[in-house]
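tool_call: predict_structure(chain=1)
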Amino acid sequence: MCGYGWGNGWGSGWGWGGAVMSVLMVLLVVAMVVAVIFAVRYLSGSSVHRRGGAPAPEGMRAEDRLADRFARGEIDEDEFRRRMTLLREHR
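tool_result:
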């Protein structure tokens, strides 16, 4: 037709290689987008979602976490006392 390359028609003789390269390019772009999203979430520290209030420090004792939940009104006094007794029994 125009005299460019060896093949005629769409793809100019690339065959299945062109289709495979196209699929690999799409997968590469998707992988890069996912990597950027995970990197942003990791660096911003937003991967840990908790209900209500500020996230509790990882080193916080169980009794302190229970007292914190009681202070926020998540549990009532009876529940607080019952759980505190259980925690102290199983040390």
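agent: The two ends are 85 Å apart (CA to CA). Proceeding to next step.
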